[in-house]
Amino acid sequence: MVDPSAARDTRSRLDMQAIHELLTAQRRRVRKYADLHSAPAPTTRPAQYPAPPPPSTQQLLDAMPTPALLLAPVLDADGRIQDLLYVSQNAAARAYAAERFARTTMPTWTDPVSAYDRFPGMAATAVPGMIARALREGTVQGPETVEWIARTPAGPVRINDQVQVAPCGDHVLAVWERGHRLHMAAAAQQLVRVCWAEWNLGDHGVAPSGSFRQVLGLDTDAPLPGLYDLAEATAPESLPGLYQTLYDVILRKRTTECELRLRGPGARVIRLTAEPLRIAPGSLVWAVRGVLVDVTAERRRRDAAERAEREARLQRKHAEAVAEVAGALREAVLPHFQDELAAYGLEAAVVYRPDAREAGVGGDWYKARRLPGDRLLVALGDARGHGLEAVTLMAKLRYALAGLAYTEQRVEQLTQWLNELACADGMESTATAVIARYHPEIGLLRWTCAGHPSPVLLRAGRATQLPLPPGGPGLPVGVLPGATYSAATVSLQLGDIVLLYTDGLTERRGHDPDEDTARFLAAARDCYRQAAPSAGHDDLLDYAQRLVARLDGPHRTDDATLLALRRIPPTPGRT
User: Fold this and answer.
1) For residues 346 and 498, is the Cβ–Cβ distance under 8 A?
2) Three-class DSSP labels, 471-493
3) Considering only CA atoms, which of 416, 12, 437, 47 is closest in space to residue 238?
4) Is the pTM of this model over 0.85?
5) Contact indicator for 414, 349 with CB cutoff of 8 Å
6) 150 with 121: CB under 8 angstroms?
7) Which of 33, 39, 239, 381 has the greatest number of C-beta atoms within 10 Å?
8) How confident is the model over 174-217, as pLDDT tens digits?
Protein backbone atom coordinates (compact mmCIF):
# COMPACT_ATOMS: atom_id res chain seq x y z
CA MET A 1 0.00 0.00 0.00
CA VAL A 2 1.38 3.41 -1.02
CA ASP A 3 2.08 5.84 1.80
CA PRO A 4 0.16 9.08 0.92
CA SER A 5 2.76 11.29 2.63
CA ALA A 6 5.58 9.67 0.64
CA ALA A 7 3.63 10.19 -2.58
CA ARG A 8 3.15 13.88 -1.74
CA ASP A 9 6.86 14.30 -1.01
CA THR A 10 7.76 12.70 -4.34
CA ARG A 11 5.35 14.96 -6.21
CA SER A 12 6.75 18.01 -4.41
CA ARG A 13 10.35 17.10 -5.37
CA LEU A 14 9.30 16.62 -9.00
CA ASP A 15 7.54 20.00 -9.05
CA MET A 16 10.60 21.74 -7.58
CA GLN A 17 12.85 19.99 -10.12
CA ALA A 18 10.60 21.12 -12.97
CA ILE A 19 10.69 24.75 -11.77
CA HIS A 20 14.48 24.63 -11.38
CA GLU A 21 14.96 23.23 -14.90
CA LEU A 22 12.58 25.82 -16.38
CA LEU A 23 14.47 28.73 -14.78
CA THR A 24 17.90 27.28 -15.57
CA ALA A 25 17.03 26.72 -19.23
CA GLN A 26 15.72 30.28 -19.59
CA ARG A 27 18.84 31.66 -17.96
CA ARG A 28 20.97 29.86 -20.58
CA ARG A 29 18.81 31.28 -23.35
CA VAL A 30 19.06 34.84 -21.97
CA ARG A 31 22.84 34.60 -21.65
CA LYS A 32 23.18 33.18 -25.14
CA TYR A 33 21.07 36.01 -26.52
CA ALA A 34 23.21 38.54 -24.65
CA ASP A 35 26.40 37.03 -26.05
CA LEU A 36 25.06 37.14 -29.62
CA HIS A 37 23.76 40.71 -29.43
CA SER A 38 26.42 42.42 -27.32
CA ALA A 39 28.27 45.29 -29.03
CA PRO A 40 31.92 44.36 -29.88
CA ALA A 41 34.69 46.15 -28.00
CA PRO A 42 36.32 48.96 -30.00
CA THR A 43 39.57 47.91 -31.73
CA THR A 44 41.00 51.39 -32.34
CA ARG A 45 41.87 54.10 -29.85
CA PRO A 46 39.46 57.02 -30.07
CA ALA A 47 40.82 60.39 -31.15
CA GLN A 48 41.98 62.80 -28.43
CA TYR A 49 39.95 66.00 -28.04
CA PRO A 50 40.45 68.86 -25.60
CA ALA A 51 38.10 68.64 -22.60
CA PRO A 52 35.52 71.43 -22.24
CA PRO A 53 35.73 73.62 -19.15
CA PRO A 54 33.93 72.16 -16.08
CA PRO A 55 30.44 73.44 -15.33
CA SER A 56 29.83 75.92 -12.56
CA THR A 57 28.27 74.97 -9.23
CA GLN A 58 24.95 76.45 -10.32
CA GLN A 59 25.05 74.54 -13.60
CA LEU A 60 25.64 71.29 -11.70
CA LEU A 61 22.75 72.04 -9.37
CA ASP A 62 20.39 72.87 -12.23
CA ALA A 63 21.33 69.62 -13.98
CA MET A 64 19.91 67.64 -11.07
CA PRO A 65 16.33 66.44 -11.73
CA THR A 66 15.30 66.65 -8.07
CA PRO A 67 15.06 69.77 -5.91
CA ALA A 68 18.39 70.62 -4.28
CA LEU A 69 19.76 73.28 -1.92
CA LEU A 70 23.39 74.13 -1.16
CA LEU A 71 23.53 75.04 2.51
CA ALA A 72 26.31 76.48 4.66
CA PRO A 73 26.04 75.46 8.33
CA VAL A 74 26.83 78.11 10.95
CA LEU A 75 28.58 76.46 13.90
CA ASP A 76 29.09 77.63 17.46
CA ALA A 77 32.33 77.28 19.43
CA ASP A 78 31.48 73.69 20.30
CA GLY A 79 30.79 72.75 16.68
CA ARG A 80 27.01 72.63 17.08
CA ILE A 81 24.84 73.96 14.29
CA GLN A 82 23.37 77.35 15.16
CA ASP A 83 21.90 78.18 11.79
CA LEU A 84 21.78 77.16 8.15
CA LEU A 85 22.40 79.61 5.31
CA TYR A 86 20.85 79.22 1.90
CA VAL A 87 23.75 79.52 -0.56
CA SER A 88 22.11 78.34 -3.77
CA GLN A 89 19.22 76.34 -5.16
CA ASN A 90 18.52 74.62 -8.46
CA ALA A 91 15.73 75.04 -10.99
CA ALA A 92 13.85 72.04 -9.59
CA ALA A 93 13.86 73.64 -6.11
CA ARG A 94 12.46 76.88 -7.54
CA ALA A 95 9.74 74.91 -9.35
CA TYR A 96 8.97 73.04 -6.12
CA ALA A 97 8.60 76.32 -4.21
CA ALA A 98 6.36 77.74 -6.92
CA GLU A 99 4.13 74.69 -6.68
CA ARG A 100 4.05 74.26 -2.89
CA PHE A 101 3.72 77.96 -2.12
CA ALA A 102 1.70 78.94 -5.17
CA ARG A 103 -0.87 80.86 -3.13
CA THR A 104 1.68 83.08 -1.41
CA THR A 105 4.60 85.28 -2.35
CA MET A 106 7.84 83.95 -0.95
CA PRO A 107 10.63 86.54 -0.62
CA THR A 108 13.59 86.00 -2.90
CA TRP A 109 17.22 86.47 -1.99
CA THR A 110 20.49 87.30 -3.72
CA ASP A 111 22.83 86.78 -0.78
CA PRO A 112 22.90 83.79 1.64
CA VAL A 113 19.96 83.99 4.05
CA SER A 114 19.09 82.12 7.23
CA ALA A 115 16.97 79.03 6.64
CA TYR A 116 15.77 79.19 10.25
CA ASP A 117 14.61 82.79 9.79
CA ARG A 118 12.77 81.88 6.62
CA PHE A 119 11.30 78.60 8.00
CA PRO A 120 11.55 78.42 11.81
CA GLY A 121 9.81 75.04 11.91
CA MET A 122 12.76 73.38 10.17
CA ALA A 123 14.89 73.59 13.32
CA ALA A 124 12.67 71.01 15.06
CA THR A 125 12.92 68.45 12.23
CA ALA A 126 15.47 65.73 11.50
CA VAL A 127 17.36 67.99 9.06
CA PRO A 128 19.85 69.58 11.54
CA GLY A 129 20.79 66.15 12.89
CA MET A 130 21.25 64.76 9.38
CA ILE A 131 23.52 67.69 8.50
CA ALA A 132 25.57 67.25 11.68
CA ARG A 133 26.09 63.53 10.98
CA ALA A 134 26.95 64.20 7.33
CA LEU A 135 29.67 66.69 8.35
CA ARG A 136 30.95 64.50 11.18
CA GLU A 137 30.94 61.17 9.34
CA GLY A 138 31.47 62.42 5.80
CA THR A 139 28.65 60.15 4.51
CA VAL A 140 25.29 60.63 2.87
CA GLN A 141 22.40 60.68 5.35
CA GLY A 142 18.87 59.57 4.59
CA PRO A 143 16.51 59.38 2.99
CA GLU A 144 14.33 60.31 5.95
CA THR A 145 10.79 61.57 6.07
CA VAL A 146 10.73 65.18 7.20
CA GLU A 147 7.47 66.80 8.24
CA TRP A 148 7.01 70.38 9.41
CA ILE A 149 4.76 73.40 9.04
CA ALA A 150 5.95 76.35 6.99
CA ARG A 151 4.17 79.55 7.99
CA THR A 152 3.52 81.84 5.02
CA PRO A 153 1.52 85.05 4.54
CA ALA A 154 -1.26 82.97 2.99
CA GLY A 155 -1.36 80.51 5.88
CA PRO A 156 0.44 77.38 7.14
CA VAL A 157 1.73 74.89 4.55
CA ARG A 158 2.41 71.29 5.53
CA ILE A 159 5.75 69.99 4.26
CA ASN A 160 6.19 66.22 3.96
CA ASP A 161 9.28 65.18 2.00
CA GLN A 162 11.91 62.46 1.71
CA VAL A 163 15.22 64.24 2.40
CA GLN A 164 18.86 63.22 1.79
CA VAL A 165 21.90 65.21 2.95
CA ALA A 166 25.41 64.83 1.50
CA PRO A 167 28.63 66.56 2.66
CA CYS A 168 30.12 68.94 0.08
CA GLY A 169 33.35 70.46 1.46
CA ASP A 170 32.34 73.00 4.12
CA HIS A 171 28.83 72.95 2.74
CA VAL A 172 26.09 70.34 2.56
CA LEU A 173 23.83 69.44 -0.33
CA ALA A 174 20.20 68.72 0.61
CA VAL A 175 18.00 67.00 -1.97
CA TRP A 176 14.42 65.88 -1.54
CA GLU A 177 11.41 64.35 -3.22
CA ARG A 178 7.74 64.89 -2.60
CA GLY A 179 7.64 62.54 0.36
CA HIS A 180 3.89 62.43 0.74
CA ARG A 181 3.59 60.72 -2.64
CA LEU A 182 6.18 58.11 -1.71
CA HIS A 183 4.66 57.76 1.75
CA MET A 184 1.13 57.40 0.33
CA ALA A 185 2.33 54.75 -2.12
CA ALA A 186 4.01 52.80 0.68
CA ALA A 187 0.97 53.23 2.93
CA ALA A 188 -1.33 52.07 0.15
CA GLN A 189 0.79 48.94 -0.36
CA GLN A 190 0.61 48.16 3.34
CA LEU A 191 -3.10 48.95 3.54
CA VAL A 192 -4.12 46.52 0.80
CA ARG A 193 -1.10 44.24 1.40
CA VAL A 194 0.20 44.42 -2.16
CA CYS A 195 3.68 44.65 -3.65
CA TRP A 196 5.45 44.08 -6.92
CA ALA A 197 8.80 42.80 -8.09
CA GLU A 198 10.83 42.12 -11.22
CA TRP A 199 12.85 38.92 -11.37
CA ASN A 200 15.74 39.04 -13.84
CA LEU A 201 16.04 35.62 -15.49
CA GLY A 202 19.64 36.25 -16.60
CA ASP A 203 21.18 36.60 -13.14
CA HIS A 204 18.26 35.80 -10.80
CA GLY A 205 18.32 39.37 -9.49
CA VAL A 206 15.23 40.87 -7.81
CA ALA A 207 14.01 44.47 -7.98
CA PRO A 208 11.11 44.73 -5.48
CA SER A 209 8.81 47.43 -4.14
CA GLY A 210 9.09 48.56 -0.54
CA SER A 211 6.48 46.19 0.94
CA PHE A 212 7.80 43.06 -0.81
CA ARG A 213 9.16 41.40 2.32
CA GLN A 214 6.13 42.39 4.41
CA VAL A 215 3.65 40.83 1.98
CA LEU A 216 5.66 37.59 1.94
CA GLY A 217 5.94 37.59 5.73
CA LEU A 218 9.74 37.98 5.73
CA ASP A 219 11.95 39.85 8.19
CA THR A 220 13.03 43.31 7.08
CA ASP A 221 16.66 42.15 6.69
CA ALA A 222 15.86 38.80 5.04
CA PRO A 223 17.48 38.10 1.63
CA LEU A 224 15.27 38.97 -1.32
CA PRO A 225 13.78 35.73 -2.67
CA GLY A 226 14.28 34.83 -6.32
CA LEU A 227 11.71 32.78 -8.21
CA TYR A 228 13.21 29.48 -7.09
CA ASP A 229 13.37 30.79 -3.49
CA LEU A 230 9.68 31.66 -3.82
CA ALA A 231 9.01 28.09 -4.93
CA GLU A 232 10.89 26.74 -1.90
CA ALA A 233 8.69 28.88 0.36
CA THR A 234 5.50 27.62 -1.32
CA ALA A 235 3.43 24.79 0.12
CA PRO A 236 3.47 21.57 -1.97
CA GLU A 237 -0.16 21.85 -3.05
CA SER A 238 0.55 25.22 -4.71
CA LEU A 239 3.69 24.19 -6.63
CA PRO A 240 1.87 22.89 -9.74
CA GLY A 241 0.09 26.23 -10.07
CA LEU A 242 3.35 28.16 -9.71
CA TYR A 243 5.07 26.00 -12.32
CA GLN A 244 2.20 26.49 -14.78
CA THR A 245 2.30 30.25 -14.22
CA LEU A 246 6.06 30.45 -14.84
CA TYR A 247 5.72 28.21 -17.89
CA ASP A 248 2.98 30.42 -19.37
CA VAL A 249 4.91 33.63 -18.71
CA ILE A 250 8.40 32.48 -19.77
CA LEU A 251 7.66 30.18 -22.71
CA ARG A 252 4.15 31.13 -23.86
CA LYS A 253 4.77 34.84 -23.10
CA ARG A 254 1.36 35.27 -21.51
CA THR A 255 0.11 37.22 -18.51
CA THR A 256 -1.40 34.85 -15.97
CA GLU A 257 -2.01 34.41 -12.25
CA CYS A 258 -2.11 31.80 -9.50
CA GLU A 259 -2.63 31.48 -5.77
CA LEU A 260 0.27 30.41 -3.60
CA ARG A 261 -0.12 29.04 -0.08
CA LEU A 262 3.17 29.69 1.69
CA ARG A 263 4.82 27.42 4.21
CA GLY A 264 5.21 28.40 7.82
CA PRO A 265 2.88 29.73 10.52
CA GLY A 266 -0.24 31.56 9.47
CA ALA A 267 -0.65 29.65 6.18
CA ARG A 268 -0.29 32.92 4.26
CA VAL A 269 -1.96 32.94 0.83
CA ILE A 270 -0.56 35.13 -1.96
CA ARG A 271 -2.17 35.86 -5.32
CA LEU A 272 0.55 36.28 -7.95
CA THR A 273 -0.23 38.02 -11.24
CA ALA A 274 2.79 37.77 -13.55
CA GLU A 275 3.66 39.14 -16.99
CA PRO A 276 6.67 38.67 -19.31
CA LEU A 277 9.25 41.39 -19.93
CA ARG A 278 11.01 40.99 -23.27
CA ILE A 279 14.37 42.26 -24.42
CA ALA A 280 12.83 43.40 -27.70
CA PRO A 281 9.40 42.93 -29.36
CA GLY A 282 8.99 39.30 -30.34
CA SER A 283 12.16 38.21 -28.57
CA LEU A 284 12.62 35.95 -25.57
CA VAL A 285 11.49 36.82 -22.05
CA TRP A 286 14.25 38.54 -20.10
CA ALA A 287 12.41 39.04 -16.78
CA VAL A 288 9.18 38.28 -14.96
CA ARG A 289 7.24 41.15 -13.47
CA GLY A 290 4.79 40.17 -10.76
CA VAL A 291 2.20 41.82 -8.56
CA LEU A 292 1.70 39.98 -5.29
CA VAL A 293 -1.38 40.47 -3.10
CA ASP A 294 -1.78 38.99 0.37
CA VAL A 295 -5.26 37.42 0.17
CA THR A 296 -4.97 35.40 3.38
CA ALA A 297 -7.87 37.15 5.10
CA GLU A 298 -10.00 36.97 1.96
CA ARG A 299 -9.23 33.28 1.52
CA ARG A 300 -10.04 32.55 5.17
CA ARG A 301 -13.37 34.33 4.79
CA ARG A 302 -14.06 32.37 1.62
CA ASP A 303 -13.10 29.08 3.29
CA ALA A 304 -15.29 29.96 6.28
CA ALA A 305 -18.17 30.79 3.94
CA GLU A 306 -17.73 27.49 2.10
CA ARG A 307 -17.67 25.60 5.40
CA ALA A 308 -20.78 27.46 6.52
CA GLU A 309 -22.47 26.65 3.21
CA ARG A 310 -21.60 22.97 3.57
CA GLU A 311 -22.87 23.00 7.13
CA ALA A 312 -26.03 24.76 6.00
CA ARG A 313 -26.59 22.12 3.33
CA LEU A 314 -26.18 19.37 5.92
CA GLN A 315 -28.50 21.19 8.30
CA ARG A 316 -31.01 21.69 5.50
CA LYS A 317 -30.91 18.00 4.60
CA HIS A 318 -31.30 17.13 8.26
CA ALA A 319 -34.21 19.55 8.60
CA GLU A 320 -35.84 18.11 5.49
CA ALA A 321 -35.46 14.59 6.85
CA VAL A 322 -36.88 15.64 10.22
CA ALA A 323 -39.74 17.45 8.49
CA GLU A 324 -40.47 14.38 6.38
CA VAL A 325 -40.56 12.09 9.43
CA ALA A 326 -42.54 14.61 11.48
CA GLY A 327 -44.96 15.19 8.64
CA ALA A 328 -45.50 11.48 8.20
CA LEU A 329 -46.09 11.11 11.94
CA ARG A 330 -48.53 14.03 11.98
CA GLU A 331 -50.33 12.60 8.97
CA ALA A 332 -50.61 9.26 10.72
CA VAL A 333 -51.93 10.50 14.05
CA LEU A 334 -54.22 13.42 13.14
CA PRO A 335 -57.69 12.75 11.72
CA HIS A 336 -59.10 13.97 8.40
CA PHE A 337 -62.70 14.85 9.05
CA GLN A 338 -65.42 14.01 6.54
CA ASP A 339 -68.91 13.10 7.77
CA GLU A 340 -68.10 10.69 10.59
CA LEU A 341 -69.42 13.10 13.26
CA ALA A 342 -72.58 14.02 11.37
CA ALA A 343 -74.50 11.16 12.98
CA TYR A 344 -74.01 12.96 16.29
CA GLY A 345 -75.16 16.35 15.03
CA LEU A 346 -71.74 17.85 14.54
CA GLU A 347 -69.63 18.82 11.50
CA ALA A 348 -65.88 19.36 11.83
CA ALA A 349 -63.34 20.95 9.49
CA VAL A 350 -59.70 21.67 10.20
CA VAL A 351 -57.05 23.86 8.52
CA TYR A 352 -53.37 23.54 9.46
CA ARG A 353 -50.52 25.85 8.41
CA PRO A 354 -46.94 24.83 9.33
CA ASP A 355 -44.21 27.29 10.28
CA ALA A 356 -42.05 27.31 7.13
CA ARG A 357 -39.07 28.74 9.05
CA GLU A 358 -38.77 25.63 11.16
CA ALA A 359 -38.93 21.97 10.18
CA GLY A 360 -42.27 22.47 8.43
CA VAL A 361 -44.33 21.00 11.28
CA GLY A 362 -45.01 21.94 14.86
CA GLY A 363 -46.81 20.85 17.98
CA ASP A 364 -50.40 21.81 17.12
CA TRP A 365 -52.82 18.90 17.62
CA TYR A 366 -56.55 18.28 17.64
CA LYS A 367 -59.02 15.46 18.24
CA ALA A 368 -62.73 14.83 17.76
CA ARG A 369 -64.13 11.35 18.29
CA ARG A 370 -67.05 9.43 19.77
CA LEU A 371 -66.91 8.24 23.37
CA PRO A 372 -69.01 5.69 25.21
CA GLY A 373 -72.48 7.05 25.94
CA ASP A 374 -72.68 8.75 22.52
CA ARG A 375 -70.75 11.76 23.69
CA LEU A 376 -67.95 13.34 21.65
CA LEU A 377 -64.44 14.26 22.76
CA VAL A 378 -63.25 17.51 21.19
CA ALA A 379 -59.79 18.92 21.89
CA LEU A 380 -57.21 21.25 20.37
CA GLY A 381 -53.75 21.94 21.77
CA ASP A 382 -50.30 23.38 21.08
CA ALA A 383 -47.30 21.37 22.30
CA ARG A 384 -44.09 23.20 23.04
CA GLY A 385 -41.41 23.51 20.32
CA HIS A 386 -41.13 22.62 16.65
CA GLY A 387 -40.18 19.69 14.48
CA LEU A 388 -39.94 16.06 15.43
CA GLU A 389 -39.76 16.67 19.19
CA ALA A 390 -42.94 18.75 19.13
CA VAL A 391 -44.77 16.17 16.99
CA THR A 392 -43.67 13.39 19.35
CA LEU A 393 -44.96 15.32 22.37
CA MET A 394 -48.15 16.12 20.50
CA ALA A 395 -48.73 12.41 19.76
CA LYS A 396 -48.10 11.49 23.41
CA LEU A 397 -50.65 14.00 24.72
CA ARG A 398 -53.21 13.20 22.06
CA TYR A 399 -53.14 9.44 22.61
CA ALA A 400 -53.01 9.88 26.40
CA LEU A 401 -56.12 12.07 26.30
CA ALA A 402 -57.91 9.55 24.08
CA GLY A 403 -57.23 6.82 26.62
CA LEU A 404 -58.15 8.96 29.62
CA ALA A 405 -61.44 9.99 28.01
CA TYR A 406 -62.71 6.42 28.14
CA THR A 407 -62.85 6.67 31.93
CA GLU A 408 -65.98 8.83 31.40
CA GLN A 409 -64.66 11.29 33.99
CA ARG A 410 -65.51 14.97 33.71
CA VAL A 411 -63.31 17.15 31.48
CA GLU A 412 -61.84 18.92 34.54
CA GLN A 413 -60.47 15.58 35.74
CA LEU A 414 -59.22 14.65 32.26
CA THR A 415 -57.31 17.93 32.03
CA GLN A 416 -55.83 17.44 35.49
CA TRP A 417 -54.68 13.90 34.63
CA LEU A 418 -53.16 15.11 31.37
CA ASN A 419 -51.26 17.76 33.34
CA GLU A 420 -49.86 15.15 35.75
CA LEU A 421 -48.79 12.96 32.82
CA ALA A 422 -46.99 15.88 31.11
CA CYS A 423 -45.29 16.94 34.37
CA ALA A 424 -44.03 13.41 34.89
CA ASP A 425 -42.64 13.37 31.34
CA GLY A 426 -40.11 16.18 32.00
CA MET A 427 -39.63 19.94 32.02
CA GLU A 428 -39.87 20.19 28.22
CA SER A 429 -43.32 18.50 27.99
CA THR A 430 -45.57 21.56 28.23
CA ALA A 431 -48.58 22.40 26.10
CA THR A 432 -51.68 24.55 26.01
CA ALA A 433 -55.06 23.00 25.26
CA VAL A 434 -58.85 23.31 25.17
CA ILE A 435 -60.45 19.99 26.14
CA ALA A 436 -64.21 19.59 25.67
CA ARG A 437 -66.97 17.02 25.74
CA TYR A 438 -70.00 17.50 23.51
CA HIS A 439 -73.42 16.15 24.50
CA PRO A 440 -75.28 15.80 21.20
CA GLU A 441 -78.69 15.02 22.75
CA ILE A 442 -78.88 18.50 24.32
CA GLY A 443 -76.34 20.39 22.17
CA LEU A 444 -74.15 21.15 25.18
CA LEU A 445 -70.39 21.79 24.94
CA ARG A 446 -68.52 21.55 28.24
CA TRP A 447 -64.86 22.66 28.08
CA THR A 448 -61.73 23.47 30.06
CA CYS A 449 -58.85 25.80 29.19
CA ALA A 450 -55.21 25.06 29.98
CA GLY A 451 -53.45 28.31 29.08
CA HIS A 452 -55.03 28.33 25.58
CA PRO A 453 -57.00 30.99 23.65
CA SER A 454 -60.73 30.70 24.44
CA PRO A 455 -63.02 29.27 21.73
CA VAL A 456 -65.10 31.65 19.62
CA LEU A 457 -68.83 31.21 19.01
CA LEU A 458 -70.13 32.27 15.61
CA ARG A 459 -73.93 32.62 15.75
CA ALA A 460 -75.91 34.18 12.92
CA GLY A 461 -72.83 35.99 11.69
CA ARG A 462 -71.90 37.45 15.10
CA ALA A 463 -68.56 36.33 16.57
CA THR A 464 -68.00 36.36 20.34
CA GLN A 465 -65.37 34.83 22.56
CA LEU A 466 -66.78 32.24 24.96
CA PRO A 467 -66.56 33.27 28.62
CA LEU A 468 -63.70 31.61 30.48
CA PRO A 469 -64.38 28.91 33.08
CA PRO A 470 -64.77 30.06 36.69
CA GLY A 471 -61.40 31.15 38.02
CA GLY A 472 -60.09 31.95 34.56
CA PRO A 473 -57.82 29.84 32.34
CA GLY A 474 -55.76 27.16 34.02
CA LEU A 475 -52.02 26.70 33.65
CA PRO A 476 -50.66 24.96 30.55
CA VAL A 477 -50.29 21.24 31.14
CA GLY A 478 -46.83 20.12 32.22
CA VAL A 479 -46.03 23.31 34.16
CA LEU A 480 -47.05 22.56 37.76
CA PRO A 481 -48.01 19.21 39.29
CA GLY A 482 -51.28 19.28 41.22
CA ALA A 483 -52.83 22.11 39.21
CA THR A 484 -56.65 22.07 39.09
CA TYR A 485 -58.97 23.10 36.28
CA SER A 486 -62.61 24.20 36.07
CA ALA A 487 -65.08 23.90 33.20
CA ALA A 488 -67.43 26.22 31.34
CA THR A 489 -70.51 25.27 29.31
CA VAL A 490 -72.23 26.62 26.23
CA SER A 491 -75.48 25.47 24.61
CA LEU A 492 -75.24 25.33 20.84
CA GLN A 493 -78.12 26.10 18.50
CA LEU A 494 -78.49 24.56 15.06
CA GLY A 495 -76.09 26.34 12.70
CA ASP A 496 -73.84 27.64 15.49
CA ILE A 497 -70.13 27.37 14.70
CA VAL A 498 -67.48 27.01 17.39
CA LEU A 499 -63.95 28.01 16.35
CA LEU A 500 -60.98 26.59 18.25
CA TYR A 501 -57.56 27.88 17.19
CA THR A 502 -53.92 28.02 18.23
CA ASP A 503 -52.19 31.32 18.96
CA GLY A 504 -49.92 30.94 15.92
CA LEU A 505 -52.88 32.10 13.82
CA THR A 506 -53.28 35.45 15.61
CA GLU A 507 -50.19 36.18 17.67
CA ARG A 508 -47.92 38.94 16.37
CA ARG A 509 -44.63 39.92 17.96
CA GLY A 510 -45.02 43.00 20.13
CA HIS A 511 -48.86 43.09 19.88
CA ASP A 512 -51.36 43.02 22.72
CA PRO A 513 -53.21 39.65 23.07
CA ASP A 514 -56.55 41.50 23.32
CA GLU A 515 -55.83 43.15 19.96
CA ASP A 516 -55.02 39.73 18.49
CA THR A 517 -58.36 38.36 19.76
CA ALA A 518 -60.27 41.38 18.41
CA ARG A 519 -58.64 40.88 15.00
CA PHE A 520 -59.70 37.21 15.00
CA LEU A 521 -63.32 38.11 15.88
CA ALA A 522 -63.47 40.75 13.16
CA ALA A 523 -62.03 38.35 10.55
CA ALA A 524 -64.49 35.59 11.54
CA ARG A 525 -67.41 37.99 11.24
CA ASP A 526 -66.26 39.46 7.91
CA CYS A 527 -65.62 36.08 6.27
CA TYR A 528 -69.07 34.92 7.37
CA ARG A 529 -70.77 38.01 5.96
CA GLN A 530 -68.89 37.74 2.67
CA ALA A 531 -70.06 34.15 2.15
CA ALA A 532 -71.92 32.33 4.91
CA PRO A 533 -71.06 28.62 4.80
CA SER A 534 -73.89 26.49 3.44
CA ALA A 535 -74.73 23.08 4.80
CA GLY A 536 -72.15 20.37 4.30
CA HIS A 537 -68.60 19.66 5.29
CA ASP A 538 -67.07 21.20 2.15
CA ASP A 539 -68.66 24.61 2.74
CA LEU A 540 -67.56 24.62 6.39
CA LEU A 541 -64.02 23.75 5.26
CA ASP A 542 -64.13 26.55 2.66
CA TYR A 543 -65.11 29.05 5.37
CA ALA A 544 -62.27 27.85 7.62
CA GLN A 545 -59.75 28.15 4.79
CA ARG A 546 -60.87 31.69 3.97
CA LEU A 547 -60.60 32.72 7.61
CA VAL A 548 -57.07 31.29 7.92
CA ALA A 549 -56.03 33.03 4.68
CA ARG A 550 -57.36 36.34 6.06
CA LEU A 551 -55.33 36.04 9.27
CA ASP A 552 -52.18 34.42 7.88
CA GLY A 553 -49.16 36.40 6.69
CA PRO A 554 -45.40 36.98 7.00
CA HIS A 555 -45.86 38.08 10.62
CA ARG A 556 -46.58 34.50 11.67
CA THR A 557 -43.79 32.91 13.72
CA ASP A 558 -45.44 29.59 14.66
CA ASP A 559 -47.59 26.90 13.11
CA ALA A 560 -51.32 27.61 13.14
CA THR A 561 -54.43 25.43 13.38
CA LEU A 562 -58.15 26.25 13.12
CA LEU A 563 -60.78 23.65 14.09
CA ALA A 564 -64.34 24.59 13.11
CA LEU A 565 -67.30 22.71 14.67
CA ARG A 566 -70.87 23.30 13.52
CA ARG A 567 -74.04 21.94 15.12
CA ILE A 568 -76.33 20.26 12.58
CA PRO A 569 -79.35 17.98 12.87
CA PRO A 570 -78.18 14.41 13.54
CA THR A 571 -78.14 12.24 10.43
CA PRO A 572 -79.36 8.63 10.30
CA GLY A 573 -76.84 5.82 10.69
CA ARG A 574 -75.84 6.45 14.28
CA THR A 575 -74.65 3.28 16.03
Assistant:
1) no
2) CCCECCECCCCCCCCCEEEEECC
3) 12
4) no
5) no
6) yes
7) 381
8) 998 876 555 556 666 666 688 899 999 988 889 998 889 889 98
